[in-house]
Structure formats: structure tokens, C-alpha cells
Design a protein that fits this description.
It is a single chain. By secondary structure, the chain is of the alpha+beta class. It has one domain: Spore Coat Polysaccharide Biosynthesis Protein SpsA, Chain A. 29% of the residues lie in helices and 26% in strands. Helix 1 runs parallel beside helix 4 and helix 3 (80-87) packs across helix 5 (193-207).
Length: 266
């Protein structure tokens, strides 16, 4: 809901053509080879979201909506892990997940699509350099990845990360180098992951506090085999309203370089 941003940031315009970050993400996904998009939304905003974003992309890719509701007794949904659960009935085969308010870059989609097209049982997560994911306008939370032989061994959520020379410091005072690999919730899953999401959520809600959230990385990090796919791409996001001008400048540069057309859906 964009509490720090001050509005529904998923529909904020990021260029002169009034595109959103969702538009750029789906555009990159389509050209990488993904052929279906499931947008997880609250039922109250589906119509407005479709009018603002969905109707354009629906002309180019199969688009469906899944609803994530606020449960009784809570002020917000259970979290990103539950969002994937809501999407699963509409998914078959291998699938990837993204945050709607993040820009991941073409390289990330291309790497993930190539991985999921190949045979194998392993899942995957895109790894970004920490310094390529920071905001100059405030603190952020990031999933710090530990890796062995190219595979994820653990992922730990660190909060209150503030940019400093050479890296970042979190709210506990721990320092992380700028080339530390972090997850930005761009995961790739085989069909076998579906049962893990169901089992983990069932166990979670039995003991969860009223304000607890069921995070996607909690499930992804529990899977037996997860390949980390590193990218040097710069992540872009609008955690804060002050981030928006920089995001617009970056995307305008990509358009000027011919990496994107001025009208993504023409």
C-alpha cells in the first residue's frame, strides 16, 4: 500500500508516456519468453488497476488477476508468501515472481527465463549487488544471501539498511560490503515449490502473531536447491516519493539508448 511512498506506488507514472514500473517489468518478461502474467491485487483496486495498467498489457500477453484480501482481525494481508499462494491456482509449469514496484532490468529477466527453460529440479533467485539496490532517501530492507558453489545456503532479512561509503549499515550496526549479494524478490520456481508454499503457510498461521507476515523468502530459502543467478544490473524502486525523479531519469536514459520504445504497448 506504499506507506513510506505516500500512495499506491504500483501505478505511479515513471516516464512521459505515463508507464508504470509494472509496464516495464511485464514488457521485459514478455520479450524474455514469459507468456502469462498473474497480477495479485486486492479486489477493491482490481478495476482501477486494470484501467490504469492491465488493459494495455492484456493486448500482448495472457493476463489474469488473483485476489489477496485482508483477513479478519488484521490491518493488512499476510505478506508476499501468501501473495504467491493466491497466484498458484492460475499457474502451471515453471514460474517467476516479481514485486510490482521494482524495476529489475532486462538482464535479470533474460537470465531467469534461460534458467527456467532449461531442464532441472533446482529453483532460482536473482542476486543483486547491495550497492545497486540502495535508496539515497532513506533506509531499506534487503535479503542478504549466503552462497556456496553458486547455490543459496541462507537468506536473512536485514532491516534499516543505510548507505555508507563502501556499503551499508543496518539497524543493528552491522556493516555489509557493496558487492554483497541480495535478493529483491525475483525468484524462479519449479512446480514442486507449490506444495512448499502451502505447507509453510499452514504451519505459519498456527503460531503467527497478529502482525506477523509470511514472506516469500521464508519459503524460497527453505527449498533444498536454489541457484543464485547474479546480475550486475541496477535495481530501481520507489520506496520513497523522493526516489521517483531518479527512477524517471534512469528509465529515460534507457529509452534514449534504444533499449525500450517510447510507447511500450504500441
Amino acid at each position: 500500500m506504499g506507506s513510506r511512498f505516500g500512495g499506491v506506488k504500483q501505478v505511479a507514472a515513471v516516464d512521459e508516456a505515463e508507464h508504470t514500473l509494472v509496464d516495464y517489468g511485464v514488457y521485459d518478461a514478455i520479450r524474455a519468453g514469459f507468456d502469462k502474467v498473474v497480477c495479485v491485487v486486492s479486489p477493491e483496486i482490481e478495476a482501477a488497476f486494470h484501467e490504469r495498467v492491465g488493459r494495455n498489457m492484456a493486448r500482448h500477453v495472457e493476463l489474469v488477476y488473483a485476489h489477496q484480501r485482508v483477513p479478519e482481525g488484521r490491518t493488512k494481508p499476510w505478506g508476499t508468501g501468501e501473495a504467491v499462494l493466491m497466484a498458484l491456482p492460475h499457474v502451471s509449469g515453471n514460474f517467476a515472481t516479481i514485486n510490482a514496484d521494482d524495476y529489475y532490468g532486462w538482464d535479470a529477466y533474460n537470465r531467469m527465463a534461460g534458467f527456467l527453460k532449461a531442464d532441472g529440479d533446482a529453483h532460482a533467485v536473482i542476486g543483486y549487488w547491495l550497492r545497486n539496490t540502495m535508496s539515497p532517501n532513506g533506509t531499506v530492507s534487503r535479503g542478504i544471501c549466503e552462497v556456496s558453489d553458486g547455490y543459496l545456503t541462507s537468506i536473512t532479512e536485514r532491516t534499516g539498511l543505510k548507505q555508507v561509503c563502501g556499503g551499508a549499515i543496518d539497524d543493528r550496526g552491522d556493516f555489509f560490503q557493496g558487492d554483497t549479494l541480495v535478493s529483491m524478490n525475483f525468484w524462479g520456481f519449479r512446480p514442486s515449490a507449490a506444495q512448499a508454499f502451502r505447507d509453510e503457510f499452514e504451519a505459519f498461521v498456527k503460531v503467527a502473531a497478529p502482525t506477523a507476515e509470511f514472506y516469500l523468502p521464508d519459503v524460497g530459502g527453505s527449498l533444498e536447491s536454489v541457484r543464485l543467478l547474479p546480475t550486475t544490473a541496477a535495481w530501481l524502486g520507489v520506496t520513497y516519493a523522493e526516489d521517483l525523479p531518479e527512477v524517471r531519469d534512469h528509465l529515460a536514459h534507457h529509452v534514449e539508448q534504444g533499449e525500450y520504445p517510447q510507447d511500450l504497448w504500441s
